[in-house]
Amino acid sequence: MSAVPDSAIPPPAIHPSAIVDPGAQLGPDTRVWHFVHVCAGARIGAHCSLGQNVFVGNDVRIGDRVKVQNNVSIYDAVTLEDEVFCGPSMVFTNVYNPRAAVPRKHEYRRTLVRRGASIGANATVVCGVTIGEYAFIAAGAVVNRDVAPYALMAGVPARQIGWISRTGDRLALPLANDGEARCPHTGEPYVLRDGVCSPAEAPYDPARIAADAAPGANGASRDAGFAPPSGPDLGPGAGLDPGAGPGPGPIQPGLAR
Asked: What is residue 71's predicted lDDT score, i.e. its pLDDT?
């Protein structure tokens, strides 16, 4: 299949009610919906979606194919890498100990969300942390420390309860030590070594994985060592369903622009 020429990629689409300040950079095919405000210094990649009532500050970097759902404010000192998902009404902060009477704009703590990570509806990310690639933050969780790649986090404060695949399916792996598992959705193999989770094969190729998982294909067996995990379903109930509506979340100050 030939690559799509640049001329065939549509420009950014901005709703008439949105405000995009002069100087802001938006990549092609990025969609900006109702009542969004993007500040002048923001840098936003291609094929992104900013839902209703989203705010993007000046010192913000957003990669390609990022989805930001309704009512999310991305304040200064936040970076979202490619393919990050921000669920409805989740919260970023940038000041750790805010006081209305004490200026602290020179004390912003930077937050980095690595490629492919998902943050559920009404979750709060306290500033100064890094969320690892493809990590999964459940709805309503409060993240106040760094999150490992592929970690599944839940609770207040957030604690790791498992591991997650690149497609968002729970892996049958222990929290620590060593182990092996396959994604129950794609069959992609994962390894856990010394408490560090990673795909056993790289780079991720969905077409190849689908072919390998087909009946009779070499390497397609899903033996007992790669059984799907037991435990609660963390699908739409985790707050990552794009159709989920906003709701009240944990109260966390520190939202200075």
From this structure: 98
